């Protein structure tokens, strides 16, 4: 996991523990004060939300506990593509330029230019150097990309 991905998870964990958890506890207490719990939709909705929130807290805590956090800014600059680096590619056929950061599975967001290290394109890129041409099997067929730049930021 990248350092920025870990920071986002820590922020979400803090939000869940400091804001969501007390709000849900208050909602459950309020719903209980309305009487019969069997037919109390507010109570059941609050309990369901509590279950979801506690599950997410446990999930985030487990991910952070087991994560190997890599800060690429501490690595010596190189032209080699590694986990966490931002890669600028040129499509060999169309000449279109693309920029991707190779991140952990939980951080991947193609709209934000972040691809999982396990994706076909990232697997093809890792270990290669600026100037190399990589072939990637896509649903649309084989694509060739030239690595234009590898940034460690």
In a nutshell, what does this entry contain?
By secondary structure, the protein is an alpha+beta fold.
Structural commentary:
The protein has 153 residues and is of the alpha+beta class. It folds into two domains: 3-66, Transcription elongation factor, GreA/GreB, N-terminal domain (Helix Hairpins, Orthogonal Bundle); 72-151, Roll (Chitinase A, domain 3). Helix content is 41%, strand content 22%. It contains three helices and five strands. It has helices at 3-32, 41-66, 120-125, and strands spanning 86-91, 97-103, 114-116, 133-138, 141-151. The protein has a five-stranded mixed sheet with strand order 3-2-1-5-4. A hairpin with a 2-residue loop joins strand 4 (133-138) and strand 5 (141-151). Helix 1 (3-32) runs antiparallel to helix 2 (41-66). It is elongated, with a radius of gyration of 22 Å. 18% of the residues are buried.
């Amino acid at each position: 996991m990248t350092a920025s991905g870990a920071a986002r998870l820590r922020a979400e964990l803090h939000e869940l523990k400091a804001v969501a958890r007390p709000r849900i506890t208050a909602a459950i207490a309020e719903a209980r004060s309305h009487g019969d719990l069997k037919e109390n939709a507010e109570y059941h909705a609050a309990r369901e939300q509590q279950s979801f929130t506690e599950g997410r807290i446990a999930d985030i805590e487990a991910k952070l506990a087991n994560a190997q956090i890599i800060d690429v800014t501490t690595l010596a600059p190189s032209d080699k593509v590694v986990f966490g680096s931002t890669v600028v590619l040129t499509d060999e056929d169309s000449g279109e330029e693309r920029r991707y950061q190779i991140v952990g599975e939980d951080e991947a967001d193609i709209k934000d230019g972040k691809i999982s290290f396990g994706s076909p394109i990232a697997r093809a890129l890792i270990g290669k150097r600026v100037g190399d041409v990589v072939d990637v099997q896509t649903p649309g067929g084989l694509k060739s990309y030239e690595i234009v730049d590898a940034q460690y930021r």
